[in-house]
């Protein structure tokens, strides 16, 4: 029997707690959510958390334009989940931008990325891969292990024939 929605929600909440994920809610000016949805559509990103996380990871404080003046009016709420490391990174970015609240940083990131358009915002949504450099010592051990395995396989084939 399939799990009910309540069971799935409880399991997801338990997993998020195990991973240290915390839900963040940012009150941003009206239209920010539509801009974020547009960015996600351009980059074919399904999850709000992923989009916001990539913006935070790839943001360069010195490149972001100054904050726009605060305007009273309707607002949107952007909800997403971050683990502790990303919360720390967001806090550092907020401090580097001279902002007092994370929501201002999120708003600035979304507005900046949206202003760049589909092609210009692409670098802000890149998933950076780690580069691996295999040392000569490790390469030698891998070659030796492969050679030993090859000899063993040949010996097994000879024994069966």
Structure in words:
- The protein is mainly alpha-helical.
- It has helices spanning 5-19, 32-43, 48-58, 84-96, 102-120, 136-160, and strands at residues 22-29, 75-82.
- A two-stranded antiparallel ribbon has the order 1-2.
- Helix 2 (32-43) packs across helix 5 (102-120).
- The longest helix has 25 residues, at 136-160.
- It starts with a helix and ends with a helix.
List the helices and strands and how they pair.
Layout: H1 5-19, E1 22-29, H2 32-43, H3 48-58, E2 75-82, H4 84-96, H5 102-120, H6 136-160
Antiparallel strand pairs: 1-2
Helix pairs in contact: 2-5
User: From N to C, what is the helix and strand string?
Assistant: HEHHEHHH
Structural class: mainly alpha
- The whole-number mean of residue pLDDT values reads 88
The largest sheet, given as strand count, sense and whether it forms a barrel, is: 2 strands, antiparallel
Give the oligomer, counting copies of the same chain as homo and different chains as hetero: single chain
End-to-end gap:
51 Å
Number of contiguous helices: 6
Number of domains: 2
Strand order of the largest sheet: 1-2
Q: Count every beta strand, where a strand is a DSSP E run of 2 or more residues.
A: 2
Q: What coarse outline follows from CA principal-axis ratios?
A: elongated
User: Radius of gyration over alpha carbons?
Assistant: 24 Å
Q: What fraction of residues sit in β-strands?
A: 5-15%
Low-confidence stretches: none
Helical content band: 55-70%
């Amino acid at each position: 029997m399939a799990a009910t929605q309540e069971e799935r929600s409880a399991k997801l909440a338990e997993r998020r707690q195990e991973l240290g994920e915390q839900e963040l809610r940012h009150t941003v000016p009206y239209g920010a959510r539509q801009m974020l949805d547009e960015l996600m559509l351009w980059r074919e990103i399904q999850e709000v958390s992923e989009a916001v996380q990539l913006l935070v990871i790839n943001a360069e404080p010195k490149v972001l334009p100054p904050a726009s003046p605060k305007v009273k009016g309707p607002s949107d709420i952007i909800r997403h989940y971050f683990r502790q490391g990303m919360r720390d990174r967001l806090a550092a970015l907020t401090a580097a931008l001279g902002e007092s609240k994370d929501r201002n940083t999120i708003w600035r990131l979304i507005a900046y990325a949206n202003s760049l358009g589909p092609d210009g915002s692409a670098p802000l949504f890149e998933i950076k891969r780690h580069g691996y450099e295999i040392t000569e010592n490790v390469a030698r051990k891998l070659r030796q292990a492969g050679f030993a395995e090859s000899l063993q396989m040949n010996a097994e084939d000879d024994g069966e024939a």
